Amino acid sequence: MVPDSRTPTGAGxxxxxxxxxxxxxxATPRGTPTAVLWLGVYQPVATVLDTWRIDDEWxxxxxxxxxxxxxxxxxxxxxxxxxxxxxxxxAQEYASPKENAKQKRA
Amino acid sequence: MEAACLFxxxxxxxxxxxxxxxxxxxxxxxxxSPEEHAQVTACSVEAAAAxxxxxxxxxxxxxxxxxxxFLPLQESAIAAESERLSGLLELYSPVIEVIALxxxxxxxxxLARMTGMADWPYLRDLQExxxxxxxxxxxxxxxxxxxxxxxxxxxxxxSTDGRTxxxxxTGPAENPVLVSSGETRTFLAGLPVEVxxxxxxxxxRLRLFGLEHLGQVADLPFSAIQAQFGREGARAWELANxxxxxxxxxxxxxxxxxxxxxxxxxxxxSEPLVxxxxxxxxxxxxxxxxxxxxxxxxxxxxGLENGEQISRRAVFREPTSDPARMLLVLTGKxxxxxxxxxxxxxxxxLSGLCSEYGHQADLWPNGPRRQRELLDAIAQLNAREGAxxxxxxxxxxxxxxxxxxxxxxxxxxx
Lengths: 106, 414
Description:
Number of domains of chain A: 1
Largest sheet of chain A: 7 strands, antiparallel
Number of helices of chain B: 15
Order of helices and strands of chain B: EHEEHHEHEEHHEHEHHHHEHEEHEHEHE
Oligomer: heterodimer
Number of helices of chain A: 1
Strand order of the largest sheet of chain B: 5-6-1-7-8
Strand order of the largest sheet of chain A: 2-8-7-6-5-4-3
Structural class of chain A: mainly beta
Helix content of chain B: 25-40%
Shape of chain B: flat
Helix content of chain A: under 10%
């Protein structure tokens, strides 16, 4: 018999971390971001540091995302992705494949 | 029209000719007098035609072009002029990138529409304003991409109605150049390959292959040019085809805090200067722009009764926001001063702002007692709010490629 831990249960005890946050993005017709609405101001994209794509779970709720690691004109680094299923943009922390490779080398 | 390029050919020479109109039409070499052991830093088209290039020794330049006028390089005046030009453009565009002295890229997206003007008249007004304010032969061009705008500005064309005619001139065009949307590739086709931002070796090799214009590069298969020239070739092909993802990167505004005060009475003694400096430091460090930050550099200025100005700079090895430490560094400098006239004004400039490092204590020192106190505090917090307030990060699916599934927050129970 497992003793009662007296720990209350419920959804409040578990929270999702690093969920995608909707973000307004201006992009070229080819889908490359040119400006990101950050803190209420459209900040131009200075550099696209990396881009990669995730396609998964096509057999149930399909996930198709194109990620962009960006450096904004203000110097801030952000990662956004274009949800290719819903045609919407989200911001989400995510180490780019380039960063991962660098960390492994280090 | 997205990007614009403002370009002043031979910037240093153009400034010299503006200040001394008699130099117009004469070969000009900038770098110093011919007897100096120095090199040419800029030269006019006339001097270049005689074989003078940047980097030539001044003696050699004299041999090549005996009739040239040799002028010293006034770096600070040239930099100030470039700054003035950028400052003027900042009145028009919020995104400006200074590429070199007298060469600026800036974003013009929507600016003409905002003023209720068509694109070309807007550009013409802007070029006229820049030329009138600076007194320099500025060339302005705008296009859908940064490279097209840059190429249009640095390669000079006849442009009477804003549409390029493809005929090269030797002087700056009186009118700006506007490369219309959809015509970028056609416009670029006639430009020489030297306009491509690739290494000089690639320029030479392109010429050796008989490729003289961007149109010829654009017509080649991508795979062929990439195989021959590698990454630079791929970039050249994309640019020649009007594809350019380059973004104008605005310069970062450095925060500087100035404080000045007129001394109540002229003085040549160091004590009142130290007291005045202390007051200025306290006033400057309480300014909201730098409150809570540390800084590396302090410029101290003293205005003298005879109109001279004395300045001293202190650069701190470790950034600080402590006025006492700053004053300690300055006091020695102030006491060593031999003033030629009484001081009447005092000023400081704080700059080089950065974040503090090396002084942060651990938030949760180790030790079982401290750990227990922490758990009690969390339990009290949870009890007061009625719901978990502190969470721990746990791995859920660390192997997942979907970021939100890798980690989760679980209520912290100790």
